[in-house]
Amino acid sequence: MPIGEICKREVVVAQRDDTVLQAAKLMRQHHVGDVLVVDDEGEGKRVPVGIVTDRDLVMEVIAPELDTNVITVGDIMVSDFASVKENTGVFESIQYMRVKGVRRLPVVDDNNMLIGIVTLDDLLGLLSEELDALVKLMAHEQQKEAGIRR
Question: Can you tell me the distance from the alpha carbon of 101 to that of 54, in angstroms, rounded to the nearest whole number?
């Protein structure tokens, strides 16, 4: 299954010149741990250029007691971030996340335009559903076998 089929299409985004306070408010409002920094290409097309996580805010701005109204997401964003093409398989995406050591993976099309985002939490939910289906299959087979042998 391609990752593009399961990624969240509604992505919380910010512009490079948005303040980190604005980014933090977006994270709180949408109950997420990151914002993707994008360049707007018009017509709803956005190119991801960076990512800012809640941890980035704490480590780079809050702990050193910098002014959250002055520092921008462009100042602290990670521009060398991992992303994956929408046709990449789920398990290949999981392996890539593990190798890169990331919990969040922007999903892009062939032109590097933002399609969505997939997180560790999303993947754990998907895998737990799949494992649950396998457990139910095993239980069904055991019941079926027990009925035949009586």
Answer: 16
Q: How far apart are CA 54 and CA 70, in angstroms?
A: 17
Q: How many helices (H) and strands (E) does the chain have?
A: 5, 6
| Bridge-based pairing state of the strands 13-14 and 34-42 | parallel
Per the structure, the complete domain to which residue 53 belongs is given by 3-120
With 90 as the cut, is the pLDDT of residue 44 above it? no
Instruction: Work out the average pLDDT over 125-135.
Output: 81
Within 8 A by CB and 6+ apart from 2, the residues are: 86, 87, 88, 89, 90
Q: Is 149 within the bounds of a domain?
A: no
At residue 115, the 3 state secondary structure works out as strand
Is 105 in a helix, a strand, or coil? strand
The SS3 call for residue 96 is: helix
Q: What percent of the chain lies above the pLDDT cut of 90?
A: 78
Residue 129, domain member (yes or no): no
Question: Is residue 130 assigned to a domain?
Answer: no
Report the domain count for the chain: 1
Q: Can you give the CATH number for the domain in which 65 is found?
A: 3.10.580.10
